[in-house]
From TrEMBL:
Belongs to the aldose epimerase family. The lineage of its organism: Bacteria, Bacillati, Bacillota, Clostridia, Lachnospirales. It is an enzyme of class 5 (isomerase). Pathway: Carbohydrate metabolism; hexose metabolism. This is Aldose 1-epimerase. It comes from the Bacteria. The keyword 4Fe-4S does not apply. PANTHER family: ALDOSE-1-EPIMERASE (PTHR10091), GALACTOSE MUTAROTASE (PTHR10091:SF0). Keywords: Carbohydrate metabolism, Isomerase. Pfam families: Aldose_epim. The keyword Isomerase applies. It comes from Anaerostipes hadrus. It catalyses: alpha-D-glucose = beta-D-glucose.
């Protein structure tokens, strides 16, 4: 039985919602569309929370750099030198990550209060990002919908702008299928990709690509995340672990994460061309998580479906450009099973 309800409404405009069916329970907020908890069953049928999340979602307003569970945008990941050119005009962004722009700027979509509408099978969040917010042109109308369908959490994104602009929306949930019992080193990962986007010393995609065969990035068959994470590979050293976009095939079930202890298996399918796999290399020292517990590096792995990071500086025809009046649409699903 599907149930959608508001569970809390605070004076500051922040609300919490619960989406629940027999297989999954999600706690989410209209603040940054944060996914705060996702409860799924293990092999024994016990529910456990498989994402990292804030104890108080408002902590995202106080400079936390983890983006746990949030929607990142207007442009997720980094834009080199915090500027870009569009239609012959240069747009300056805030350099909030060294000299680069990260996840939409100083006050990205993760920090915005969205309007909301409860649906029969989920919730719709709506945000109007005004022209030149965080330096991006165009009034952008963004819809984010979270739905539950049996054992699947579905995220749908839609946007339209009244001027040419950039867009790259992702959900920044960190998963831990042991429900916090263990770090993610023993999680097994499989990704349908032959290449990753390489990064520089600031984790900025630099326009080169690595064929992953015979490298620690080859996840065509299952490997534990921890198996090769400390290998002497330049790309692992630069990022302090995995923090790379896998160029996924245009197929279903592009990524599988599996925890053999609990039997939980997460399968991701996206219409987007990349999945950023980020092994929580900088999690320590951030805000406290649920139960007031400080998170540490490698407590979760973020799986972020998106366009190519730094696309505007790399791609000949950058997919991140959204033309005036055109519709941006993307769908990413997360299917939870036990095995
Ligand atoms: C990821 C990014 C990481 C880090 C993280 C937020 O999307 O790839 O380098 O910035 O967000 O802490």
């Amino acid at each position: 039985m599907m149930k959608v309800r508001m569970i809390e409404q605070r004076d500051n405009g922040v609300c919490l919602f619960e989406l629940k069916n027999d297989e999954i329970k999600v706690i989410t907020s209209n603040l940054g569309c944060h996914v705060l908890s996702v409860f799924t069953k293990d092999r024994e049928g016990n529910f456990g929370d498989v994402v990292l999340g804030f104890e108080n979602v408002e902590d995202c307003w106080h400079g936390d750099g983890s983006y746990m569970g949030a929607i990142a945008g207007r442009v997720a990941n980094r834009i080199g030198d915090a500027k870009f050119e569009l239609n012959g005009k240069t747009y300056e962004l805030a350099a909030n990550n060294g000299k680069n722009s990260l996840h939409g700027g100083i006050k990205g979509f993760n920090q915005k209060i969205f309007k909301y509408k409860l649906l029969e099978d989920g919730i719709r969040f709506i945000y109007l990002s005004p022209d030149m917010e965080e330096g991006y042109p165009g009034n952008l109308y963004l819809k984010v919908v979270y739905r539950l369908c049996d054992n699947t959490l579905k995220m749908e994104y839609e946007a339209v702008s009244d001027q040419d602009t950039l867009i790259n929306i992702t959900n920044h949930s960190y998963f831990n299928l042991s429900a916090g019992k263990d770090k993610i080193y023993h999680h097994q990962l499989k990704v349908k990709a032959d290449e990753i986007a390489c990064v520089d010393e600031n984790c900025l995609a630099n326009g080169t690509f690595l064929k992953i065969e015979n490298t620690p990035f080859d996840f065509k068959e299952f490997h534990e995340i921890g198996e090769r994470i400390n290998d002497d590979h330049e790309q692992l050293k630069l990022a302090g672990g995995y923090d790379h976009s896998f160029m996924v095939k245009d197929e279903e079930d592009q990524l599988i994460l599996y925890d053999k202890e609990t039997g939980r298996k997460l399968t991701m399918t996206t219409t987007l061309p990349c999945i950023q796999v980020y092994t929580g290399n900088f999690l320590s020292g951030g805000c406290n998580g649920k139960g007031g517990k400080p998170y540490e590096n490698r407590d979760g792995v973020a799986l972020e479906a998106q366009f190519l990071p730094n696309s505007i500086h790399i791609e000949k025809e950058p997919k991140v450009i959204l033309r005036k009046g055109e519709e941006y649409e993307a769908v990413t699903t997360y299917r939870f099973e036990v095995e």
